[in-house]
């Protein structure tokens, strides 16, 4: 079955080719399989050829000329417009649309999940959409619910039989892992109630499950299934290691972003490095970026450095930034107050833009945070 186009702009397909190549470079099996399927070498031009041929076209030029035409594209536009009656009417005429897939293997259910509209998802599930199907990265609608912190949507999908144990974007990249990567504790609880998978140290830390932490401590399973480390290729490439220190310190970061203060204390008591920057952000930076006031307070009490610099996010984002920069960016005023009371420097500049936390607040339109920081500068 060829992929159906549903977008018209060339930049969209260029982005999909770039993402496909990044996933294949990471070793994501489904992405590698696409290059193998067409006997194309993994390169930028090769990725474009794979994308074109996967859509049933002979060339990249032909793909761009024909993109965005046909019933699947019509259905996508109804999904994008959140037009429930229109989508329902089109599915009445063409019920097989729920079985068709678009660019990078995205079906209508996955596309609807990305709109965060539970009504559209419920309609497609009722019309027979396959809740088990993932796209070329293995990403299912349930992964999207975890990624976007949509507990109600997750319940609809789980009740329809969506699997909670399938990995995407690397081993261990389950819907629960996708949720906990962002500290999305509300949807994480829904998923964990079905099954805690994978059962490793960072998952236990994100769930603030000290009993599970204790059961894993010192066992090989503590660091197992950590191939997943980013939800999309906007984050830089990284190869997770298996050292006890890295596994432990990564768990601290996952606890921090989920406000899991008991897990933070438990890990710190066992030698965790609170200022470690295991992958794109120290624990304090993650807690500050996610507005986790309790975690920020606990980390500072445990001895985390208030002005430690690190990296955060994808290329061109946080380089040489502190927790105060990211609290300012998110407009988390209470976190800013806690950091300032602990001695955070409001005049520190990052290494990429040379901007203070107040500058980051201004750039993000966070007026209250900017005013607070300007008063302290």
TrEMBL record:
Family annotation (PROSITE patterns): ANK_REP_REGION, ANK_REPEAT
Ranges occupied by ANK repeats: 104-136, 137-169, 279-311, 319-351
Any matching Pfam family: Ank_2
Keyword Repeat: yes
Keyword hit for Oxidoreductase: no
InterPro entries: Ankyrin_rpt, Ankyrin_rpt-contain_sf
Keyword line: ANK repeat, Repeat
Protein name stated in the entry: Ankyrin repeat protein
């Amino acid at each position: 079955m060829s992929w159906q186009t549903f977008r018209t702009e060339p930049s969209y397909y260029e982005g999909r080719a770039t993402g496909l190549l990044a996933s294949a470079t990471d070793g994501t099996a489904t992405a590698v399989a696409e290059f193998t399927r067409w006997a194309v070498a993994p390169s930028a031009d090769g990725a474009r050829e794979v994308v074109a041929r996967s859509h049933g076209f002979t060339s990249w030029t032909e793909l761009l000329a024909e993109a965005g035409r046909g019933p699947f594209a019509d259905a996508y536009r109804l999904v994008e417009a959140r037009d429930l009656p229109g989508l329902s009417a089109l599915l009445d005429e063409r019920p097989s649309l729920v079985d068709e897939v678009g660019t990078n293997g995205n079906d209508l259910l996955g596309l609807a999940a990305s709109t965060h509209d539970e009504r559209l998802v419920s309609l497609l599930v009722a019309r027979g959409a396959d809740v088990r199907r993932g796209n070329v990265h293995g990403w299912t609608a349930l992964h999207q619910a975890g990624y976007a912190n949509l507990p109600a949507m997750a319940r609809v999908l789980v009740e329809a039989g969506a699997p909670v144990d399938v990995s995407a974007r690397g081993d261990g990249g389950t819907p629960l892992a996708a949720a906990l990567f962002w500290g999305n504790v509300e949807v994480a609880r829904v998923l964990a109630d079905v099954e805690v998978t994978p059962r490793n140290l960072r998952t236990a830390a994100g769930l603030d499950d000290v009993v599970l932490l204790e059961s894993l401590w010192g066992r090989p399973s503590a660091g197992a299934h950590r191939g997943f480390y980013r939800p999309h290729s906007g984050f830089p490439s990284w190869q997770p290691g298996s050292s006890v220190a890295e596994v432990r310190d990564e768990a601290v970061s996952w606890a921090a972003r989920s406000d899991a203060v008991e897990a933070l204390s438990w890990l710190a008591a066992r030698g965790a490095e609170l200022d470690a920057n295991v992958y794109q952000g120290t624990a304090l930076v993650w807690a500050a970026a996610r507005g986790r006031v309790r975690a920020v307070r606990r980390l500072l009490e445990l001895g985390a450095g208030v002005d430690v610099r690190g990296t955060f996010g994808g290329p061109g984002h946080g380089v040489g930034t502190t927790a105060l920069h990211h609290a300012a960016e998110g407009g988390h005023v209470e976190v800013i107050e806690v950091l300032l009371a602990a001695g955070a420097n409001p005049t520190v500049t990052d290494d990429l833009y040379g901007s203070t936390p107040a500058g980051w607040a201004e750039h993000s339109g966070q007026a209250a945070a900017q005013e607070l920081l300007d008063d302290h500068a």
